[in-house]
Each structure stands twice: as C-alpha cells, then as structure tokens.
Amino acid sequence: MPTANWDPIPDDIFEPTCSGEQKRTLESVPGDESPDYVVKLASEVDRQGHWLDYNHDRTTMQSWSFPGPNGVRQAYGLRGLHGCTSVIIASEKGVFISHIWEAAFSNNDESPTDDKTFSAQSSEALQKGTMQDGSDGLQALTQPGQILHRDYKPAIFIATPLTDDWERRNLHITTPTRYEARTTQLGNSVRQLVPGAGAPKVQSYYRTERDVADDISDFAGKAIVEVDPHQAVLESEDDKSRPIGAWRAWIEFNKMDEQAFLYPAPVERAE
After folding, report:
1. How far apart are CA 37 and CA 164, in angstroms?
2. pLDDT tier at 249, thresholds 50, 70, 90
3. Concatenated DSSP letters for 217-246?
4. Which of 154, 231, 244, 269 is 20 to 30 Å from 259 by CA-CA measure?
5. Rounded to whole angstroms, what are the CA distances from 258 to 127, 172, 222, 249?
C-alpha cells in the first residue's frame, strides 16, 4: 500500500512518488524558502481553479470540502489582498475563505464606518452567506455533518493590512494594523459563530499594488490552505489501515497552523 513522499519545494510539487509504507507529516518548509513554496502553491491553486472569485462591491465567500482519503493533494486560496480583510477557516473536512472590502471598515473619506454598517458587511454577511452566488455562510456550514462543525476542529485565521506611513501622517492611526479594533471585533464575532473554534490567529500584511497582489508568481496578497488527504498511514493489528490527512494554512509566507487528522474508520487505499 504505497504512500506519497514530498520534497520541500519540488517543481512538480503535487506529483507523488511511491515510498513504501513510510509514515510522514507535511514537509517542513524552512523560513527562507517559504516565499518560493507559497508561489508554487499559488500556481497549484490556479491550476486547480480553487481561487475565491470575489466580488468588487460586497463581501464574498466560498467553501470547499476536502477530498476523501483516496483523493489527491489540493490547495485553495485568495489572491488580491491589497488593503482588504480575509477570514479563513480550516477544519478536518474542508476550508472556508472570504474577502471583505475596506468599505466595511472605512467610508470614502477614510472615516470609520458605523457599527451597523460594519456588522452588516462583515460578521453578518459571513453568517448568512451570499444569495447572489449561492455561497453558504457560517450558519449553514457549522451544522452537524457540515465542514465547519465543531466535531471537525475548525480553526480561524484573519488577514488584515498594516498601517502605512500615509495613514500615520494623515489619519493619525497609531496602531500597528489599520483596523485593529474592528479586526478584534470581527474575530470575536466569528468565533461566536463557529462553535468549537479557538481564538482567531491574526496575521498582518503590507499593502502592495493590486497587480502584484493578483500575480500568482508573487507571494504578496495571498492566503492559501493546502491539504494532503492521505498524509500518512496508521497501521493496525488486523491489517486494516487508517489514513491520516493533514492541512496547512498560509497568509503570504507566514505559516499560520497545520493539523493532522485521522479518518474515522479503516479505509482501503486504492493501488
């Protein structure tokens, strides 16, 4: 029953090679190699068609179920972050990725939005989903059997922009991130919407030009979750194997978390 073995940054990153019954974990990526690794992940997200197709005038979200233990390695992501905010939630069953425009946080004159506007365009939108494109929100995705139910150990991540020099000089923003209080408010609200999740992990990023954030040959402006649905094999005395899957989340070149998970029942691995 062969399993796949992965080098840290191979050109054919998603092409498995057989290595017998070797047990393994997601490959370690040294810090100085992580930008290149994320660029390769971005290329794979593009090849698989797993980018969030966000809308330019409203909060957008999308969710994907991970493949089962006989599936192949996958990656899912968001590109184009150049001032906006993203909530990403990964679990043992799948991933949820969202894009929240700066209009939820600030008005055209750079003044803060009121609480009602902010909630409607952030946590409430994430809870309800989007009727326009049929995307389920957190209310639906956290139900029993759905990908973000507490049984599947959901984890929350938030990408948010840093305060730049212009904002310090002209808007007198003194916090490290542009929307620090609102990001904390958003994180607290999302945590309440996702039972079983711990405190959100927040990662700030530098604003870049939009074309750079959109470019899949650059790590900037990207949030990606990768999954290997058959990361290892747990052998048992009755000769039945229990596949182990694993996911890992990135915001730009920052590794946010990685989790391994055991499938609930023995599964025969396809030869």
Report:
1. 27
2. very high
3. TS-TT-EEEEEEEEEEEE--TTS--EEEEE
4. 269
5. 25, 37, 17, 6
